[in-house]
Specification:
It is a single chain. The chain has about 200 residues and is mainly α. The chain is about 75% helix and about 5% strand. It has a two-stranded parallel sheet with strand order 1-2. The N terminus is likely disordered.
Length: about 200
Amino acid sequence: MKNIQSTLNIILAAAIAVLFFLQFKGSSGSAGGKSASKATDSAGASVLKVAYVDLDSIQVKYTYYKEKTDEFARKNESAERDVNNALQKLENERVAFLQRGQSITQSEAERFQQELQRKFQNIEGQKKNLEKSIQSEGAKTMEDLKKRIDQYLVEYNKKAKYSFIFSTSSAIDVLFYKDSALNITNEVVAGLNAAYNNSSTK
């Protein structure tokens, strides 16, 4: 799986490199030099304008994401507490049953063992359901996060007029070099927070 991901990253990086090469090929002016480049620009050729957003910074600074992260942490803690309490209760039942000692009959021991196993399986099922629910909600939150960023960037770019706005992060980064002058993360975070604070769905 890692080899496939690495291959895809290399292909994507190569595609980006080709895109930049083709875009700037005409403006480099192999025959006319700088004067040819200026002439092309003055003739009205579009200039490629790019920027990037650091997703790591958005996760740290975007209020919506931070609130959701805190919410998931609370839900995880609550789920773990519930499961641990149920397991402790089961252990207490086992200890109390064994304290009867020699008075326990073979049939009682078998019934108790079956009941204990049934309860343990129920707790395991409860744990899996809680984990699945939290994972599902987490996936929906990430979809909503992407939707919010996409919608904001559409409005933001009506004035900024970027040709491309890339995303970068410590987890997935296919940009080999990033000029910090092209980093618009702070502007985007400020806009996202303003939109979130003003939203009725906060």
